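step=encode ok
step=design start
structure_in=
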């Protein structure tokens, strides 16, 4: 089958990111373009990127609450050793599980 050259304008950052993904899956830009044309011919519409699942703000706030430590930065008890503060915060959380 004869082939032809296609030229397209794509933002550089998008192209570079896509080339990294293509390399990771063992494909080339030509493979991607051919797959897009195959999809278009089979479905008669453009492929649409899947939208990420919307998470309610409330669940994100719960996630932050569970994955962060409250540190009283204005407290005079702070020694400047953040690792000690984190150890203390983790210790307190682990004790609450017992």
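sequence_out=
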């Amino acid at each position: 089958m004869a082939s032809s050259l296609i030229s397209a304008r794509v933002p550089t950052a998008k192209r570079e990111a896509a080339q990294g993904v293509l390399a990771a899956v063992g494909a080339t830009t030509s493979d991607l373009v051919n797959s897009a044309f195959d999809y278009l011919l089979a479905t008669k519409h453009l492929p649409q990127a899947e939208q990420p699942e919307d998470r309610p703000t409330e669940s994100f706030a719960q996630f932050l609450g569970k994955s962060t430590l409250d540190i009283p930065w204005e407290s005079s008890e702070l020694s400047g050793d953040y690792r000690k503060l984190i150890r203390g915060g983790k210790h307190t959380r682990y004790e609450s599980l017992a």
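step=design ok
step=annotate ok -> The chain is about 55% helix and 0% strand.
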